[in-house]
């Protein structure tokens, strides 16, 4: 099949899911055409079956903002007509499925549309009622809708009661060969960040408010008072200034390292002892899965899809949003009990492999594609 993959290029799980899915589909003989405003950040390795089509930007005096949704629609038609796409897979209803729908009206031969929900579509509607009709349209015109967690599928069905289509749950996934547990081996890198054998806590995100990165610093401060450790903060985003201020206020500058945006996170995860994800909302939490696959237990908030990803009391611990004491106690439970830590670490690596293997997810997407193409 020839698949048009529409996704955000920026630092975030949905782009990672689209890209890894693309590589796996390419390996299975499909042709995958990424259509985005920039090259998706993990689309680096050359593959003969993978293509990238950049949406051209325009700057015209009457446009206060460049009309990205229209430019994307135009690019989708161009690619679909030229290469003969069989279907479009849009990651995010808003704006990608709307652009795809518009594109379909202009195609020489209209093709099916599969929409995958990653969470923010529905929370956006929660925050801005005016998006409800548009999101509803995006879902209605999709030939199939998938969601990355059960909780997101349920939440979407509840938010759009009038929707006839079923929302199919296909969990996010990892390629186990890319995320290997190192069993806390002392690497050169680990020695650099923790020269006296301190424990390493890590957080990776796009530093949006919803990620509650300031909580990460507060949790670290509590933990560090009991066990010598270091905090690695990976990523960048709107909350960065607040986070830096919190680190300074608490006098933690020498113990907290900001690593900025990183393309591959395996090396960082492999030297991590505990991963912290105290988000306000998280439809899945792909980075928590990546951490577990590297044998790193995760301490996170009990929201959205996180309880489906992290087994509370087996592969990590969950606490209520904002419960920094609960989360710091959970981290300490892991750091102060070697045998508990070893069990959790093994369980995390096994669970990530058993429950979220890439092969299973790719086969599920493939069968969704086959059924929409046949029914067209
Ligand atoms: O969370 C973000 O800010 C990024 C966003 C994205 O576009 O990648 O993440 C969403 O999709 C990921 C992949 O399915 C999920 O793992 C994240 O949980 C989800 N984020 C939220 O629900 C807040």
Description:
With 376 residues, the protein is of the alpha/beta class. The chain folds into two domains: 2-173 and 357-374, 3-Layer(aba) Sandwich (Rossmann fold); 188-355, Rossmann fold, CATH 3.40.50. The protein contains 15 helices and 13 strands. The strands form two sheets. It has a seven-stranded parallel beta sheet with strand order 3-2-1-4-5-6-7, sandwiched between helices. A six-stranded parallel beta sheet has the order 10-9-8-11-12-13, sandwiched between helices. Helix 11 links the parallel strand 11 and strand 12. Helix 8 packs parallel to helix 9. The two termini are 14 Å apart. The mean pLDDT is 94. It binds ligand GMT. Ligand GMT is lined by residues 8, 12-14, 17, 118-120, 148, 172, 206, 208, 210, 281-286.
């Amino acid at each position: 099949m020839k698949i048009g993959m529409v996704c955000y290029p920026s630092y975030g799980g949905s782009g990672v899911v689209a890209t890894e899915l693309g590589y796996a589909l390419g390996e299975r003989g499909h042709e995958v055409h990424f259509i985005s405003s920039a090259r998706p950040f993990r689309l680096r390795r050359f593959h003969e079956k993978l293509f990238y089509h950049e949406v051209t930007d325009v700057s015209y005096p009457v446009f206060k903002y460049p009309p990205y949704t229209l430019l994307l629609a135009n690019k989708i038609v161009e690619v679909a007509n030229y290469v003969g796409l069989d279907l479009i897979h849009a990651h995010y209803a808003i704006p990608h499925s709307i652009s795809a729908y518009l594109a379909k009206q202009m195609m020489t031969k209209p093709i099916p549309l599969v929409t995958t929900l990653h969470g923010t579509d529905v929370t956006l509607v929660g925050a801005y009622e005016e998006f409800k009709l548009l999101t509803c349209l995006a879902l209605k015109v999709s030939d199939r809708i998938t969601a990355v967690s059960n909780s997101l599928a349920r939440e979407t069905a509840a938010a759009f009661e009038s929707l006839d289509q079923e929302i199919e749950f296909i969990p996010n996934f990892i390629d186990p060969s890319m995320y290997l547990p190192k069993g806390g081996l002392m690497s050169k890198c680990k020695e650099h960040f923790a020269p006296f054998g301190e424990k390493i806590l890590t957080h990776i995100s796009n530093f949006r408010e919803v990620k509650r990165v300031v909580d990460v610093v507060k949790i670290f401060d509590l933990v560090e008072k009991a066990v010598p450790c270091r905090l690695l903060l990976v990523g960048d985003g709107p909350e960065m200034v607040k986070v830096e201020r919190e680190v300074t206020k608490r006098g933690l500058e020498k113990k907290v390292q900001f690593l900025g945006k990183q393309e591959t996170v395996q090396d960082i995860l492999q030297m991590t002892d505990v991963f912290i994800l105290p988000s306000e909302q998280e439809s899945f939490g792909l980075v928590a899965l990546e951490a577990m696959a590297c044998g790193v237990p995760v301490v996170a908030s009990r929201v959205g899809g996180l309880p489906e990803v992290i087994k509370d009391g087996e592969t990590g611990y969950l606490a209520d949003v904002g419960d920094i004491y609960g989360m710091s106690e959970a981290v300490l439970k892991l750091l102060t009990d070697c045998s508990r830590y070893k069990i959790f670490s093994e369980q995390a690596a096994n669970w990530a492999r058993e429950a979220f293997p890439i092969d299973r997810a790719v086969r599920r997407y493939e069968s969704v594609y086959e059924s929409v193409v046949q029914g067209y």
